[in-house]
Amino acid sequence: MYDTHDENYDDFELAERLNKSQQKRDIAELHELARKLAKMDTILLEKMELPKDLLKALADIQVMKHAAEKRQYKLIVKILRQNDTESFLETVSDLDAKKEAQDKNFHRTERWRDRLIADGHDAITEFMANYPQADAGQIRQLVRNANKEILQNKPHKSSRLLFKLLRDIICY
User: Fold this and answer.
1) pLDDT in tens, 34-65
2) What is the mean pLDDT of each run of 10 residues along the chain (172 residues)?
3) How far is CA 69 from CA 33, 46, 80, 142, in A?
4) Which pLDDT value is given to residue 78?
5) Is 16 exposed, middle or buried (0-12, 13-18, 19+ CB in 10 A)?
6) What is the CATH code of the structural domain delimited by 100-171?
7) Going by C-beta distance under 8 Å and a sequence separation of 6 or more, which residues neighbour residue 58?
8) Distance of alpha carbon 163 from alpha carbon 137, whole angstroms
């Protein structure tokens, strides 16, 4: 018979292993980070102080075809796993938040422009109540000109000028 009891069994410590599902989620998160980094401008990437091998891998992926691109993303994820990614994630999330705020302001400005052109006086009165620093005379003039251009099928020059004016008022 065999003795199955080991004398050193009491000194044995179990090695802690991460849950395999958690490992997959972590890799998927890093893969998403790699995709976001690959879409960013190279000047912005250089400001983030990324490791040189990661910068090179991100630069290389810009000119690759689908299959090579897939392999390159695996390499980027491998490099990301070897580095601390907290600062990269934080920077990317800050940039996403800024872009989201810019998009919100852009859409708010578009809605105001369209409403001012469509509703006229009532919309101008409400806009002036919300943004008293605005020049009502200039807005009225641009709205009148935009309506004339629409009726005469001319280019929408005044509409663009109105948008720029509203953007300056609303966003700053």
Assistant:
1) 998 898 888 888 888 888 998 899 888 888 88
2) 57 72 90 90 84 90 86 91 86 90 93 93 92 92 93 91 93 73
3) 15, 21, 16, 49
4) 92
5) exposed
6) 1.10.60.30
7) 37, 38, 40, 42, 45, 50, 76
8) 15
Q: Which DSSP string do the residues of 64-124 spell out, in sequence order? A: --HHHHHHHHHHHHHHHHHS--HHHHHHHHHHHHHHHHHHHHHHHHHHHHHHHHHHTHHHH
C-alpha 136/C-alpha 161 separation (Å) is 14
Both structure tokens of 135: 């020049």
Structure tokens at 45: 């990437």
Cite the residue boundaries of each domain of the chain with CATH code 1.10.60.30. 100-171
The tokens for 36 are 């976001």
pLDDT of residue 161: 94
Q: pTM for the whole thing? A: 0.63
